[in-house]
């Protein structure tokens, strides 16, 4: 591709993104949440782990008994709820990024090998994908985390080893379509190594497809982390996690429903932002729009 062609292609891609409602709304929400997570130590007004039992279960600002120092109130241990909400964004995004790195590395590598080489390699990897698809993710994750102990590292490792199948399926299909292209045949003819063809030629040509899978899988990971934390098999207390905050507030759901409503709303907003962004990218990069 010539330099002039690249210059005309980039603005066109940006115009498509700016003209897509899902990308704009989802991307804006996601950028705000990411900024909050990155700047959590600066934005949080209090220490999210500091307890003050004399100020336990203070209501948010819209109640008559609200305290100005705690805009969103406090939890059952007197910890500032706004600070825990802000730091909870770090946990959700951190788990999502960590799991995607692990599962993406496994799935993309297996998909490339299966799609490019075919034959018995494709059969073995396809069998592995089918085996993984037959496993119930939540039940396997519950058992693995229960055996390995609830921790952030264990959670990322277990989910990363369970969520690679979609990367493998998409990458395999894309590699099968690219391996017979003329530029790949030309590289083979001049004696280019297989590693160069796979990782420097085929892989960059499917980056848009992989990006869509990443954006959609992040939402799934975030929900799984919240579910496991809610069940007590995810992030360990007192680490602020939105799923854990929902679990801690369920005993007071009748009298202080905001303990569940606030982290639940934040979780829904984050998943909505990721899904909108992913759907928008899929619309832009799909075959019908090319």
Automatic annotation (TrEMBL):
<dbReference type="InterPro" id="IPR000515">
    <property type="entry name" value="MetI-like"/>
</dbReference>
<dbReference type="InterPro" id="IPR050366">
    <property type="entry name" value="BP-dependent_transpt_permease"/>
</dbReference>
<feature type="transmembrane region" description="Helical">
    <location>
        <begin position="91"/>
        <end position="117"/>
    </location>
</feature>
<dbReference type="InterPro" id="IPR025966">
    <property type="entry name" value="OppC_N"/>
</dbReference>
<keyword id="KW-0812">Transmembrane</keyword>
<feature type="transmembrane region" description="Helical">
    <location>
        <begin position="21"/>
        <end position="44"/>
    </location>
</feature>
<comment type="similarity">
    <text>Belongs to the binding-protein-dependent transport system permease family.</text>
</comment>
<keyword id="KW-1133">Transmembrane helix</keyword>
<feature type="transmembrane region" description="Helical">
    <location>
        <begin position="210"/>
        <end position="235"/>
    </location>
</feature>
<protein>
    <submittedName>
        <fullName>Peptide/nickel transport system permease protein</fullName>
    </submittedName>
</protein>
<feature type="transmembrane region" description="Helical">
    <location>
        <begin position="255"/>
        <end position="277"/>
    </location>
</feature>
<dbReference type="InterPro" id="IPR035906">
    <property type="entry name" value="MetI-like_sf"/>
</dbReference>
<feature type="transmembrane region" description="Helical">
    <location>
        <begin position="137"/>
        <end position="163"/>
    </location>
</feature>
<keyword id="KW-0472">Membrane</keyword>
<dbReference type="Pfam" id="PF12911">
    <property type="entry name" value="OppC_N"/>
</dbReference>
<feature type="domain" description="ABC transmembrane type-1">
    <location>
        <begin position="89"/>
        <end position="278"/>
    </location>
</feature>
<keyword id="KW-0813">Transport</keyword>
<dbReference type="Pfam" id="PF00528">
    <property type="entry name" value="BPD_transp_1"/>
</dbReference>
<keyword id="KW-1003">Cell membrane</keyword>
<dbReference type="GO" id="GO:0005886">
    <property type="term" value="C:plasma membrane"/>
</dbReference>
<dbReference type="GO" id="GO:0055085">
    <property type="term" value="P:transmembrane transport"/>
</dbReference>
